[in-house]
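debug: dumping io for the single-chain case to check the tokenizer round-trip. Nothing else runs in this session.
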Amino acid sequence: MTGSNSERSGERNDPPGGESLIRVRGLTRDYRLIKKREGVAGGLIDLVRPRKHTLRAVDDVSFDIAPGEMVGYIGANGAGKSTTIKMLTGILTPTAGEVSVGGLVPWKKRQQYTRNVGVVFGQRTQLWWDLAVVESFGLLKKIYEVPDDVFAAQMKTFNDLLSIDEFLHQPVRKLSLGQRMRCDLAAALLHRPRVLFLDEPTIGLDVVGKENVREFLREIRDRAGVTVILTTHDLGDIEKLCRRVIIIDKGKVHFDGDLEALRLRTGSPVRLSVELRDPVASARLAEVTAQLPVRWQEAEGLQHVAEFRRQDVSGAQVIETLVNGCKVSDLHLAEPAIDEIVASIYRDPGKESE
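debug: decoded output
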């Protein structure tokens, strides 16, 4: 994966309409590490003459995010995702580059900045472990100086969308993982932030728990227009929540654009499932679509599957040809899953720049 940010992505760094709430330019973060020698003697030498080297965790990252956007920020372990988020939230100071979130620099005027952002780390809670949930919310209300009417309105919204009333008076340590995550999301949004940073918000949750979190995030985006940056290894979160995805690898941005553009760029095939009225061999269907770049899986009977690339032929053209040449009972067109697409990029690093 090589090339400059804009050349690699082939999509855009600028948000729709040119309006930007989050602006990142040339963001870079280096870590100074000591390469230790082996053995006791090596350890003694390290005390006197340590061998230092620089690890670049984030390398010249640039992008813009518009108000109300929900963007997936994904990559393999060690790609630079969490380091980027820590700089955007002000936890880390970059080695180089600029960041502006709502006109504020995250690592400057920290108190003012934190009033405008919310953060959820899936493996860590911001609630007080031995306190009842409602007491944690009360403390956060005082910390963020949330007015009584705003607090009441927010709590009603959270109960409507997350059903948290049933465990408000339980200590945080007694909550299930799914219950705690719902409370963490509510806590992060209690002060009505403009931006929400989510790091693995569905990690460890079951299917129902994940869908509850996803539905809540969709509602918050639609109701309040909260801008969301989501990092996750669960690509189902990305596919169900985000229209735009940024892929980072070895500290560099390698794609920034819409999911549909990503599918087209990687050339992942679309799958067409066909149910016929009369049984035939797949060879017969191959004859019908002989003039089109379509590949049929070998089969007999009523059920058949074809694959093709949208760059080569449109779905409408394939379907029209089939309907005119066969007695079709039903059709289902399935896009390639986002995890297949991302996996194909990592298997073939040059593929997204073709």
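debug: round-trip ok. The longest strand covers residues 52-65.
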